[in-house]
Amino acid sequence: MHLFRTVLFTCSVLILIGFFVYGVLQAMSSSETTSVSKIQSDVDIAIRFTGHSLAYQILKIRYANDTPRVRHTAAHFFGERLYKDSGLSGFSVCDTDFNYGCYHGFLARAVAENGLTVISELDDACFSADPDRPSTCQHGIGHGILEYVGHDNLLQALTVCKTTRPVEIYAGCVAGVFMDYNIFARITETGEYVIDSRELTSDVNLYSPCTEVPEEFRPSCYHELPQWWNTHYRKDFTRLGQYCSGILVEDGRTACYFGLGGVIAAFLEYNQVTTIEACKEMPTENGVRTCIARVARAIDLNTPHHDVAVELCNTYAPDEPRCPHE
Q: What is the DSSP string of 222-283?
């Protein structure tokens, strides 16, 4: 009898929680989820009704069927709010879902509010949170550093990143700095929070700032260019591949194709068929192979289809070390 009452009580609690979560989801606006103000509103509602831990899980349910970009943005805003409310103690609420969006928002806000003295502590937190792939978490530190020192101080931000522990040549803190330099948040005259990108003036500044920064930072810089280009030439992946081919140094071209593969994977929602078709539009064999390797890695990191990623690598990029082969 005691066991029966325990089970009955547990089921009742779960049912009540389910109704509560449903109620919170219903309280969220049904307008377009691509609106930044709409996402912010959903974050506020979820936290107000449930607290941070459960709010994060509710937001995952709410945005589960949206595009990767929207999901990442929602988690990013949640991470910012989490730090604002909880400080560094809230870091454990974040996880790797939605392409590390919660970590990115949390870390960027932490640097913005604490300054550069907190970098070492945040770097340690990234290694503790995800020992296998700390560089993706470190990416958020880079966003925060550039926002703190200002976009006119790119070299200073890159130099500060050198105090973090490097793991991958393209990823990590430096990549976060370049992404924030290219694509950033701003407040409009009407108070709207929007995502914007720096101006692309024909082909004049196509490869800037990569041709001007010290050589040690250039691979990561070239890797981040396709995402910026894509904000001006939406899904014109053939054009972007041609831009990559115009980089004068081979290492830079490879970095660019690898970055473009990540853009293709995200914007085509990790679809095996359409992503491979897009990568095959690259103008060189190296471009095709490197692009597919990045697509495979993205599928492996962001979907449960590890077997698909391995098959793509073994078929199209058997010698690519950044590709999951088993």
A: HHHHHHHHHHHSTT-HHHHHHHHHT-SSHHHHHHHHHHHHHHHHHHTTT-HHHHHHHHTTSS
Question: Between 97-114 and 119-129, two packed helices, what is the crossing angle to 10 degrees?
Answer: 160
Structure tokens at 19: 């109704």
Give the tens place of pLDDT for each residue, 103-131: 989 998 999 899 999 999 999 999 998 88
Distance between CA 120 and CA 111 in Å, rounded? 11
Joined tokens for residue 95: 């996880």
- Pair of tokens at residue 51: 């607290």
- Give the pLDDT confidence score for residue 260 in this predicted structure: 98
Phi, psi of 195, rounded to the nearest 5 degrees? -100, 125
Take residue 55 and report the two structure tokens written for it.
């709010």
Cα torsion angle, 44, 46, 50, 56, sign: negative
Q: Average pLDDT, stretch 176-181?
A: 94
Tokens of 40: 């912010």
* Three-class DSSP category at 17: helix
Band of pLDDT at residue 19, cut at 50, 70 and 90: very low
Cis status of the peptide bond prior to 214, with omega within 30 of 0: no
Could you report the per-residue pLDDT of 153-162, keeping only the tens digit for each? 999 999 999 9
Q: Count the residues in the chain.
A: 326
Q: Which of 63, 75, 160 is nearest to 118 (CA)?
A: 160
3-state secondary structure of 186: strand
Predicted pLDDT of residue 251:
95
Domain ranges of the chain: 216-326
Q: Specify the amino acid at residue 61.
A: I
Q: Match 């700095």 to its residue by tokens.
A: 177
Residue scoring higher pLDDT (5 or 247) = 247
The C-alpha angle with vertex 304 and arms to 183 and 271, in degrees rounded to 5, equals 60
Q: What span, in angstroms and rounded, lies between the C-alpha atoms of 22 and 5? A: 25
Phi and psi at residue 180, to the nearest 5°: -70, -30
pLDDT of 275 strictly over 50 = yes
Is the CB of residue 206 less than 8 Å from the CB of residue 200? yes
